[in-house]
Structure formats: structure tokens, C-alpha cells
Amino acid sequence: MEREPSAPLPPKRDISLVSWVNSQGFSKPIQFFDRKFGLFEVMKNTALTHSRPPPILPAGGPFALADSDSYCRWRDAKLAGYPARAEDLIVEVRNPAGLSAAEEAEIRRLCRVANMAIYAGREPDPLNRELPRRLGERFGLVHLDSNPLSDADGITSLQVVADKGAKGYIPYTDRRLLWHTDGYYNPPEKRIRSFILHCARPAAEGGENALLDPEIVYILLREADPAYIRALMAPDAMTIPANADEAVQVRGAQSGPVFAVDEHGNLHMRYTARTRSIVWKDDVATQAARRFLENLLDSDSPYIFRHRLQANEGIIANNVLHNRSAFRDAVETGRARLLYRARYYDRIAGTGLHEAA
């Protein structure tokens, strides 16, 4: 499989990306880049269900397999000073709905570096459901993804709801929620680029989130074998079958790539660890990439951050990979988990690839 040159990677907890990948048994030592993969064209014979043309693999920039120099520069800059633990993502704020200029700047800096930040509010107003909307506006997030399961204002109340859970909507149960990016079933014109998860009430026990930056995933995959990236950028890499649930709008089958580059040059990831209601492209390259990704998500990678949100804390992110552990509510004592989720078609302002710091 093809390889590309790699400058020494900055260590993280004394573990470089290359040594960590090799220690997991994912790859052979990195060797060289086969220049024949510098030519890209639209993938043909695909079964896309939306009206937009199939994605084109990028011909230049850090996410183009042909442009190794741009990739290495971007990778080294990305990893320089990357957060080492979940605590490094936390920004203490007085009031999440009314950030100071310094608080806003620090949250934006973290989102530029790691595509996510965790805010911890001090003022006791966690049940204010307007908070996610007001916070989002500070970061240029205005186009909410209103969907049949969201509330009338476009914000979704994530809590145990028996009838929704009975229909298979796991976010509305107390069961664990597997790794995913939000809106992986959406068509390209409704791509979820960011989200805010605000904790109004934590559960009595459990409900921890794990978080992983898609750009780090891209680096790990590309360092292991660039063929993984090529496979996961195919427009038919992952298909979500149609949803014909009579309680929600009918959604046709959605085929698309796992990794895509948007019109501004930013990387977008579309993924779910579900094994039901998902069809992966059945070829050797895609299945190998899928196994690598599953092994990474099941590992103890130092790039996976874990945090249990408390009241008036929240996550603001450029749609990073995340999951949730199972939890237990104690309704009789008022400890029933309630989170407000806002999902946006916008990327957090000031965090784009070509936006100045």
C-alpha cells in the first residue's frame, strides 16, 4: 500500500503518532509516497441519492494525497501544542450566555487548535434553554438544524423519553451511545458542521462523553496508510438506508464519503459506529480502513478525551466524534439527565483552515 514521507512528529505524553500507531499493530513503518496517486478524478458508477455531483478528491492542500508537503506542514502545526488531556479543553466562564471577550477568545483558540472546547459556567442558570442559541451566536452559529425530533425552537432536549427510545432513538434512552458525528444521515446540503451540548442537569451516575478530533483521526489514518484516506473519501464509502418511520419525515438512503473537504477547504467527517442501519462499501480498501478506525476508537489513544458534564457546563465543537456512556437517573431526587443540543450548518467562526488566527 502507498506511503508518503513523514517529518518527525511532535511527541504527546512521550508518544509520537508514528510510535503509537505502530504500537497498536495497525501499520508497517512509513516508507514512501507513490506519486501515481497524485492524479484524482470524480469517482464514477456511484449510487448517490442527492442531487449534488459526486465529491472530487482535492488536488491540492493538506487533505490532498498528492500534496505531501502541504500535509506535513499542516500536520506539524496541528500537533504543536495540541491539548494533552481533557482538562486542557476546559474554559472557566462566569456566564456562558454572556461571555467576556477573553473567555470568547480562549474558547475560539481551543476550537481552532482541537475543534472543540468545554465551557464551565459559574453562574447558576443551567436550565436556561436560550443559552445554547446565545452562545452559538457569539461564534457565528446561526443556521440551526431543526429536525422532527427537535423542539419547536430548533433546540433538542436530550433526556429519557420512553416513546422515542422504544422506536430506536438511542439518544432518548439511558443506554450508551456509540461513536458518531452528528447528522451522519443528513444529505450534503444539510451537513452538520458544529454543535453545542449544554448540560442543564447531569445524571445521578454515568453519562460521560468521549471526544475525538476528526483531524487527528485523519492524521492517524494517513500516517498508517494513505490508501485508507483514499477509500474513505469515495462518494459511496458509507450508506445510511432510508428512514421510513411514520413518526418522522421520510429520508431517502444517503450515500457519501467519511471524509470530505468543503468549499472552504475544511475537513468534514461523517461517521457512525452503528452496525445496524448502515452499509459500508464492500471492497478490500474500505473494509481495511473501517477496521483501522474501529480499532482506534476502541483503543486507549491519548487523543481521546473523556469528560462528564456537570450542570452549566457544555461542549462547543466543529462536529467532533463523540460518544456517551450509559447512565442512571434518580428522578425521585431530581437528578435526571437533561442536555440541550443545538446543531448547526455553520462552522465555528475563526476556526477555518484559511481563517487567520
Beginning-to-end CA distance, first to last residue: 36 Å
What pattern of helices and strands is seen along the backbone?
A: HHEHEHEHEEEEHHEEEEEHEEEEE
Strand order of the largest sheet: 1-2-14-5-17-3
> Would you tell me the structural class of the helices and strands?
alpha+beta
Largest sheet: 6 strands, mixed
The best one-word shape is: globular
How many H/I helical runs?
8
User: What portion of the residues fall into strands of 2 or more residues?
Assistant: 15-25%
Radius of gyration, taken over Cα atoms and rounded to an integer in Å: 20 Å
Low-pLDDT sequence parts: 1-18, 25-55
Mean residue pLDDT: 85
Architecture (CATH level 2) name of the largest domain:
4-Layer Sandwich
Structural description of this entry:
With 357 residues, the protein is of the alpha+beta class. It has two domains: 17-79 and 214-297, no CATH class; 86-212 and 303-344, Clavaminate synthase-like (Double-stranded beta-helix), CATH 3.60.130. It has helices at residues 17-23, 68-79, 101-114, 131-138, 162-166, 214-224, 226-232, 284-297, and strands at 90-93, 116-121, 156-158, 177-180, 194-201, 205-206, 209-212, 238-240, 254-256, 259-261, 267-269, 279-280, 305-307, 313-317, 321-324, 327-328, 338-344. The strands form five sheets. It has a six-stranded mixed β-sheet. A four-stranded antiparallel β-sheet has the order 4-15-7-13. Strands 9-8-12 form a three-stranded antiparallel β-sheet. Helix 1 (17-23) crosses helix 6. The protein is globular. The protein starts with 16 loop residues before the first helix and ends in a 13-residue tail after the last strand. Mean pLDDT is 85; it is low at 1-18 and 25-55.
